[in-house]
Design brief:
Layout (H helix, E strand, L loop, with lengths): L1 H10 L3 H36 L5 E4 L4 E7 L3 E7 L2 E6 L3 E4 L3
Antiparallel strand pairs: 1-2, 1-5, 2-3, 3-4
């Protein structure tokens, strides 16, 4: 009986080996999902800080226009002649070629 318990204890993996797959999954998740998302967010924040009046932009809704005024929280974007809309800064998806 004692020998059987000793054999079972010898066959059980250590606590480190039990949690190794979980740790590997977390590292894999961070490398493939978290890091690229943080990098993309940093690039978008840099883009927003560099925008100025006269830049052509595409909004997240697909509308393309030219920034006429910049503000703390909003941009004023001209989408057609004499048609201006006010959009939140985060609504700008990309700067387009002029």
């Amino acid at each position: 009986m004692i020998l059987a318990l000793a054999a079972d204890a010898a066959q059980q993996p250590s606590a480190l080996m039990q949690y190794a797959p979980l740790v590997l999954i977390l590292v894999f998740f961070y490398i493939l999902i978290m890091r690229p998302q943080q990098k993309r967010l940093k690039q978008h924040q840099q883009l927003l800080s560099e925008l100025k009046a006269g830049d052509k932009v595409m909004l997240s809704s697909g509308i393309v226009g030219k920034i006429t005024k910049t503000g703390e929280k909003f941009f004023t974007v001209e989408i057609a002649r004499n048609v201006e809309i006010q959009v939140e800064r985060n609504a700008v998806a990309a700067r387009t070629a002029e």
